[in-house]
Specification:
Blueprint (H helix, E strand, L loop, with lengths): L1 H17 L1 H21 L7 E7 L4 H11 L4 E6 L6 H6 L5 E5 L3 H6 L5 E7 L3 H25 L8 E7 L6 H32 L2 H5 L5 H30 L8 H24 L4 H17 L12 H6 L4 H15 L3 H30 L1
Parallel strand pairs: 1-2, 1-3, 4-5
Antiparallel strand pairs: 3-4
Helix pairs in contact: 2-11, 3-6, 7-9, 7-10, 7-11, 7-13, 9-10, 10-13, 10-14, 13-14
């Protein structure tokens, strides 16, 4: 019996390894995904951009700021001199943190009253904000230890006063759950469209479709609409759950959000149809969708910040429609972003959709003629 099983197993290995497409499935997806995960999947923060609003010119504030500038986790971008400069820096994501030291900081420490250090964080990415805050606490703790050692053990510490914009409690649900709108809409739409043509080829009905009076454009529209409608309903359902069940505040415009959904679904359908048009079987369609889906999620900023990825990986993310839609959905929920502020995120998704749908149409036409 063992000899028979071994003979069958040997035959299966030969069948897999002799087939070029099977070898590609075994080698290319794991290699591509380990590279993507290895370079981009990290919860560490490096070079956190921050500015300093220092109203104190005493020795203590200079020593504290030296601790920040001497660590690789932070990237000092300069000083500001007024409260009004804080808002545009955080709104436009130029900094993750503003460090504010009051005018009496050094005097209060010398007099044993303790000093306050204001930390203003961009709370839209609660994970990054929490990691940044932990870095700050470690630095302030080291500063307090050094200060106490130099002043005879009198230890009235400098203490943090933390304000987190857009997400005051740094609630991780407010960051993660809106992102699920993008994730599930992409999964559902991509699976439906990636299997649409491959399923007909496997069943033998695709050739019948090609001999109908329908043009390639009409075929694309007919194949696109079911995925678009289901993706639209799915996204609407998840948005409703996010607002009414999980109580994540929605501060923006539904018009801005749904324009983003339209552009995102257009790009997802284009990618799905392109995958389906080059797939002969449903299994190949599923593998193609999976090969796109996993890197797309990792490179979107869904869990780990894009700014922390290597430069060449960051350039690749511009080809990922989920990158743009995640910003749109989180901005409309947490920031109250309007249509005008998000315009530069809509057109890249539309462009991706037009290019991929055109490619799918060319592949249909090639098959037809």
């Amino acid at each position: 019996m063992l000899r028979k099983i071994f003979a069958l197993m040997k035959k299966e290995f030969r069948a897999i390894l002799k087939n070029k497409k099977s070898r590609m499935v075994l080698i290319v997806p794991p290699l591509a995904q380990i590279l993507v995960f290895g370079y981009s999947a990290s919860f560490d923060l490096n070079n956190v951009p921050y500015v300093v609003y220092n109203e104190d010119q005493g020795q203590a504030s200079r020593q504290l700021l030296a601790h920040f500038r001497g660590t690789p986790e932070f990237n000092y971008l300069g000083d500001i001199t007024a409260d009004r400069e804080i808002t545009p820096l955080i709104n436009e994501k130029k900094v993750l943190m503003v460090l504010h030291i009051g005018a009496d900081f050094s005097k209060n420490l010398l007099n044993g009253r303790g000093g306050k250090i204001g930390v203003i964080l961009d709370g839209r990415n609660s994970n990054s904000a929490m990691i940044c805050l932990n870095y700050v606490r470690n630095i302030v703790s080291r500063f307090n230890e050094n200060w106490a050692a130099r002043h005879g053990g009198r230890h009235v510490p400098a203490r943090l006063v933390v304000r987190s914009w857009f997400n005051a409690g740094l609630n991780s649900h407010w960051f993660i759950i809106p992102g699920i709108v993008a994730l599930l809409a992409l999964v559902v739409t991509l699976e439906i469209t990636a299997l649409s043509v491959a399923k007909e080829r496997e069943a033998g009905t695709f050739d019948q479709l090609l001999v109908t009076p329908m043009t390639p454009l009409e075929i694309i529209i007919g194949k696109s609409l079911p995925g678009f409608i289901i993706g639209f309903i799915e996204a609407t359902f998840i948005i409703g759950m996010t607002i009414f069940w999980f109580h994540v505040p929605f501060r923006g415009s539904f018009l801005a959000l749904y324009v983003g959904i339209f552009a995102f679904l257009l790009s997802a359908i284009g990618i799905g149809l392109m995958i389906s048009s080059i797939s002969v079987t449903q299994q190949q369609g599923l593998m193609g969708a999976f090969l796109f889906l996993v890197p797309a999620v990792i490179l979107s900023g869904f869990a780990t910040p894009i700014e922390n990825m290597p430069a060449f990986i960051q350039y690749i993310t511009y080809l990922n429609p989920m990158r743009y839609f995640l910003i749109i959905v989180r901005s409309t929920f947490l920031e109250g972003a309007s249509f005008g502020l998000l315009w530069n995120l809509y057109w890249p998704m539309v462009l991706i959709g037009v290019v991929t749908l055109s490619a799918a149409g060319m592949l249909f036409r090639k098959k037809m003629y």
